């Protein structure tokens, strides 16, 4: 059913421990492979597993194109051509978080994939069009992990301003931060019919003629989308802070929905079109934002260990806010994003359940907010994907609550 | 061009986890120990035999990885079934845990020869004999004389420590060091390879490095590992890196 072949990475590419998860993530986004594994010792060899029915030549072509783009020579060439068009980001070297220490060494008791069990025991129901219904056990776990995370991390952060926003992000706001350049493939738009009476009548007539179905081409009837569905709740904090001057380092806490057009990659709680995110956002001095990065990553790992979740922290790619083409200079750290990854034992893999992004002064400059006495204002945020926490927990311990760690209260079991 | 694994690093993989085996096969040339003993829980022994058997078939043409099977000890009810199922797949070597006496080793060899004759196999196995208790250290010379097919001696630190505790010895950690020293010296004197025990605190690479340096002084020529991060340390200390 599956075929595996090995190949060497082209010179001079050698992947270190931090780069391997980034490489595999990008690889699977670009190549129609089922799995890719990198030799963790030398970081030079990869094993590609793909569906045997898929043409080998096609896979090899996709791999070759990906590797060509991945090699530094190519990056340098494209970077230099981009330089002509756009000024470069002003990269700032920061101390790395202590990644070696950031691991939660628990012992999960389940090795089986629990996907079928979730459906058979009706913890989840599959609806049409990739939609899901969460039943009580899943809802309880989502609520429990959210509250325990807020209790554990929020209490240590101290004073946090609470916020709640809608899921709609004004398109004009997104345009201002060049959002549409950064990840258009994940974009979900929210629009409505044109307010013009004739257009509405024409639309209704078209629907009637089409037996109640939407017209094949809706474009002529629709307004240019005034909103997008937010890909992270924290954007609204920067929107709220636009043109504000604030006195001191400030933390916000919020929960909201995130929307990502994942296309056919949607898979139960592991990858969803929209999911729930708990976020802490930090605005203040570069030192504060960087310190909160190290602290919140550490606390997140401690929280995982307390809950029995096995995982670790790693350097990540795809900073969610950075546009491909920037219009001005920003101070941005060299490594923007760190992920907390939880083990998925049955496939000897991990998934990202949380990430900390250090934005540098990108949002502060773009939306003109700043500290009163400080010339330089940075922002950063940590977001926890609650569905993925529940997914990784159940993959690590199974559905039988008597096998769950003792730390999980009886009221949740 | 494929490169054979050097006799330095021995990577343990639990026999009942096919995905771990598959992962280990992505490593550069390596000796991989498919473990049916401590790495496999009691209720998974049957499943592990099946998985390991399939792995040996699937990767039989892989010349870069040396596949070694650690069977269960002769003091358990599993060892005969292990050998009946796995000898026909002709693993590169068989690692034998908890060999206490020369007779333990002879018993295994007889069983292996029976399987070879019954199935008319063209196979000459060699053994990695694990020294894991005080009795075995005492009987070391006799155990060595019991078979012409010993490839190496290996040390099992955790079980040796437990044996010392069970015997009420005052300082089990010291006893372990003395045993390792004795085993290392013996192997050096007879020109036999000798592999050290696993180091479970795999994130403590500094501690592991120090332990490897000491072990090399004792006479050990390679080491078993449980995590990819430990590989470079072993290559660095016991031999020339394959990088």
UniProtKB/TrEMBL annotation, chain A:
It comes from the Bacteria. Gene3D superfamilies: Bira Bifunctional Protein, Domain 2. This is Aminoacyl-transfer RNA synthetases class-II family profile domain-containing protein. It comes from Paenibacillus silagei.
Automatic annotation (TrEMBL), chain B:
Gene3D superfamilies: Phosphoenolpyruvate-binding domains. Its cofactor is Mg(2+). It holds the Pfam family HpcH_HpaI. InterPro entries: Aldolase/citrate-lyase_domain, Citrate_lyase_beta/mcl1/mcl2, Pyrv/PenolPyrv_kinase-like_dom, Pyrv_kinase-like_dom_sf. It comes from the Bacteria. Its EC number is 4.1.3.34. It is an enzyme of class 4 (lyase). GO terms for molecular function: citryl-CoA lyase activity. This is Citrate lyase subunit beta/citryl-CoA lyase.
